[in-house]
Design brief:
The protein starts with a strand and ends with a strand. The protein has 161 residues and is mainly beta. It has one domain: Coagulation Factor XIII, Chain A, domain 1 (Distorted Sandwich). The strands form 3 sheets. Strands 2-1-3-4 form a 4-stranded antiparallel β-sheet, with no helix packed on it. It has a two-stranded antiparallel sheet with strand order 5-6. It has 1 helix and 8 strands; from the N terminus they run ββαββββββ. It catalyses: [(1->4)-beta-D-glucosyl]n+m + reduced acceptor + O2 = 4-dehydro-beta-D-glucosyl-[(1->4)-beta-D-glucosyl]n-1 + [(1->4)-beta-D-glucosyl]m + acceptor + H2O. Keywords: Carbohydrate metabolism, Cellulose degradation, Copper, Disulfide bond, Metal-binding, Monooxygenase, Oxidoreductase, Polysaccharide degradation, Secreted, Signal. GO terms for molecular function: metal ion binding; monooxygenase activity. One of its GO terms (cellular component) is extracellular region.
Length: 161
Amino acid sequence: MTYLADCGGKCSNFDGSKGNVWVKIDQSGYDANEAIPWASKRLPEQNSTYTIKLPSKIAPGEYILRHEILGLQRTNKDGNLAQFYPGCHQITVTGTGATKLPEGIALPGAYKADDTKSVRIILLQYELASLTEHKILLDYRKVTSYTPPGGPVWGDDGWSQ
């Protein structure tokens, strides 16, 4: 999941923990059309790199780009133990765009590891494969779709469905 927040000036004066300032501009979760359906499993095949394209019409200025990997490999049936790995980068956008970011979500706060409405969505699709020596093995083959938490993606054409 990748979010963008407009610093409204210098990022050195920006506090991204206040307000609904984070706009999701990209996401990749599960894609049955890919040879490796899970985005997190594709990373090693891509030299641990992930490329995104910024919306081309956004206004010049300083922004914080937040990319987040959501680890569901240890998530239990109650939605607990989801692991979030965010990383933030300060970027400067140049060009002639004039579009301001719309209102987004609050981070932290929009979702959390034990939020059954956003993270547990995938858990209902897991099928218990076996239980051996205190290890629960989940059968990922039964998953047919997954939408990452954090709302829709916004881009040059507005909000996605």
